Amino acid sequence: MEAAKRRRMPYLFLSPYLLFYAAFGLFPIIFSFYVSLTDWDGIRDKTFIGLDNYLHLFNPNSYFFKSIGNTLLFVAVSLPLQIVLGLVIATLLYSRAVKGRAFFQLVNFMPYIVTPVAIGLMFNLLFDWQAGVVNKLLLHFGFIDEAIYWLGEAFYARMVIILMLVWKGFGYTMIFYLAGLANIPKDLLEAAQVDGATGLRAFFSITLPLLRPVTMFIVITGIIGGFQLLEEPMLLLSGSGMGSSSAVIGGPDRCCLTAVWNMYDTAFGSTTRYGLGAAIAWGLCLIIALFSFLGVRLYKGDAE
C-alpha cells in the first residue's frame, strides 16, 4: 500500500501542470484543427467543409504562398547579415584590444529585448515619407533630391524590414558567439601562433569550424523566429504617416505580408474567416516543422 502511494505521488504533483496544459494548450490545438475543417466566422454556427480550407491555400487569393515567399525572403537576407555582424562584433569584444566589454555587450544586445511594437513604431517614424528623420538627413547632406517613399514602394519597404530585423537580431547572435568563443580551447590558438599562423588564418581554420554548432543553432532558431514575424512589419506599415498605403494589408502589392500576418488578417481582420485562418496556421506549422527537422538533421550530421 505504501509503495503504491509513493508511485502515485509524482502524478499528484504533476497534475496541476497537466490540467493547465490540457485546458490551455492541448485543447486549443485540437480545437484549432477542428475549426480548420469548418467554415466559421465566430458568430454563426460552424459548417463542416472538410479539406476545402486547405485546398483554398493553393488559391492565389489566399496569399498563403505569397506570404511564405515574403517571409523566406526576409529570413534569407536578414539572417546571414545577423550572423556575420554578430560574429564580427563578438570576435572584437572577445579580444583584449576592446575595453569596456560588458558595456558594449549590453548596448548591442538591447535592441533584441525591445518590444516588437516599439521597434515597428520607431522605424515607422524614422522612415516616414514626410517627417522621417532618414529622409531629412539624406536631403540635408544632399544624397537625394526629393524624399523617398520608403514604406510606399515594394523594394524600399522590404529593405526597411530587413534592416529592422538585422538591427534587432545581431545582438542575439553576438551573445551566442561570445559563449562559443569562450569554450574554444586556448591551447589550439596558441599552438597555431607557434606554428606561424596569422590571426586571420587561425580564425578561419580553427575558430570558425569550432563555432559551427553555434551557427547551426542560430540558423535553426532564426528560421523558426522568422516565420513568426508579425508585429514589426504590421506596426511599421500601419503606423502614423502612412497615408493611403496603410489601407493595403502587407504594404504595397502585399510585398511585406508575412505568414503570421496573413493568418491574423484572415482570421481576425478584413475577412474574419476563422476556419481558413486556422488552416493557414496549420500549414505554417508544417512548414516550420519541416525546416526544424532539416536543421536538426544537418546539426546531427555536423556533430557526427
Automatic annotation (TrEMBL):
PROSITE patterns: ABC_TM1 (PS50928). It comes from the Bacteria. The keyword Cell membrane applies. It is a multi-pass membrane protein. It holds the Pfam family BPD_transp_1. The chain crosses the membrane at residues 12-35, 72-94, 106-127, 210-230, 274-299. It is found in: Cell membrane. Gene3D superfamilies: MetI-like. The keyword Cell membrane applies. Residues 68-295 form the ABC transmembrane type-1 domain. Keywords: Cell membrane, Membrane, Transmembrane, Transmembrane helix, Transport. InterPro entries: ABC_transporter_permease (IPR051393), MetI-like (IPR000515), MetI-like_sf (IPR035906). Belongs to the binding-protein-dependent transport system permease family. This is Binding-protein-dependent transport systems inner membrane component. It comes from Thermobacillus xylanilyticus. The gene is txxe 920.
